[in-house]
Amino acid sequence: MSAAPTTSGQLPTRDQTHKWHMDLMSDDVLLRRLLVLKGWSAKALTALEIGFDGQRVTIPYLEWEQVANVMRYRAERPITETGPKMLPYSNGHGRCLFPEVETVPEGRLLFLVEGEPDAITAISLGLCAIAVPGANSWRKSYVEELEGRRVVVCFDDDPPGKKLAEKVVADLTEAGTEVRVLDLGTENTDGIKGFDLGDYAARAVSEAEPDEDVEALLEQVGLTLLNWAENTDPEKAEETRGSEVPAEEVPEPSRSLPEILDEVEQAISTFVVLPSPEAGAALALWTVHTWAFEAAHATPYMLVISAEKRSGKTRLLEILTALVRRPWATVDVSEAALFRKIAQDRPTCLIDEIDAIFSSATERTAPLRATINAGNPEGGSVARCAGDDMKVVDFNVFSPKLLAGIDKGERLPDTIRDRSVTIQMVRKTSDEPVRRLLLRKVHPLLENLRGDLEGWASRNVEMLSSAEPDLPAELDDRAAEAWEPLLAIADLAGVAWGSKARDAAKALSSNTGEEGQTHGGLLLAAIRDLMGSKLTIATKDVLLRVNHREELPFGAWRDGEGIDARGLARLLKPYGVRAKKVHISDGQKVRGYHRDDLSEAWSRWLPTPASLGKEPAELQVQVEPEVPQDRAKVPQVPHKDQIGVPADISGPTGSESDRRTKP
Prior knowledge:
Helix content is about 40%, strand content about 15%. With about 675 residues, it is α/β, with parallel strands linked by helices.
């Protein structure tokens, strides 16, 4: 067990609280224990971003996606040290109603409970709940926040709880708020001192049959509480539950689709410098797509990358959280948390720092990559063992995703790139001013636009489902599949947006260039360009030239010595290309490559000829006679910092671990 975290001083960062949440959601044993102890469901823990810091449960107060306070909760003594059940992490922002009252839609019955843990329990039961921080923490200012609500008070069955209930009922009644009291003590047949909502839910879980669906059981327990609160006949539970949450028709959008797309594009470019107009068009179309992605046969991933920090990636994610459907912004996500979250909520995933996740090949990265890849086609799922009986469950992971991070061309899996529309962000200059983004203001600012996005999508899902837009011939099959749902939206917006979208597709995803190719593909293209009309080329000639090409990454490999013959052979082997003895122009017989061995690989993997540029004049030299293969050495080339190859992600010269991962 790690040392106890500090309970005073600096408030934990948003990244830290999110890491604690990921740690909790990845720990099936701890999740089960919290379910048995308090009746907490994974869905409620995810909604409130509850975490575990190694000793205590962490309960974050979030305001505008920023951490305002974090409480540390001792669910049971074996989890942590002795002491108070609830401890603050810092003395900054005090405790208040949790979560915010605004999270409960108007018209819904609001359960007012005692303490943050009971709020988590109530939400696990499917109830709309807000917690008073404690028995002695009621404030008159809360009355105004609860004005116009229908409130059910459900406090602990002990003297402080009963005293608090009397005061709350008196204050709310005086203000004209409809309020009633739900006395859990009448059901406390076990004689538990201070019986609370968590004890009530835990008892229901403990009495469950081994094969019973606990989530469904909690729903039934919550339904019973709701009926008690409404004074309805238990036999009419389903009828009551249905009438409690009336289905509200989504309002008509106030803008047309072209206007919605224009305003989304404008909203993004107001706060972020985009690399091109095509990037803005793609992001606007994808934003609309997140609201109607169920209509698509596949969902394109947006890959937002840059060569260096401070290029606007994180800022772009922040503005998109105010625009996309069900945003889930996260970093350093685990595979277990990812597939559970998607299966539960079908969110729009906005995953930052993707480079850190795939910085090295570990046991963690392979399943995470597979989960991301599986979520691209409609109905995509991953099979995982779940529950105490370890039954195989298919988790649906089909959802829109945006992946952001720093990229030098070597870190991100090609299978993810292949499913993505890539936007290469650039750092803004002093001549490119953008409006400062204040998170607390941007959501209200874009609330009407967000409503129009929802209104339009709800009325056009069926039409999008049957759309078959014309796809540009410049797109390969994977790119065409990615762009199809975006082009379907663009066509519904009219001719102008249809043309604009196809220009963006060709600019960002055309297969006519070398961008996005694997290292093996880059070598094939380089050899084709170097050979020209010749029949053969020597291995050492290939090495000399590809290691001096600034637009290729190979010169920086092996700590600046460049790729060698062994690395060259390893990259070309998967394409069926192998070196052998060949005759070159001066009649010598050396190790190299023959056109006949390369032609099939060129035709299959490089369908469109493309030049990598003219060879530098200083490299047009006579190749020296070959030395024996076992003593061959690649000619010395300038260090990577001298030939313009960007430094590694880890720093100007890269780390030792980085160099070991390179061919």
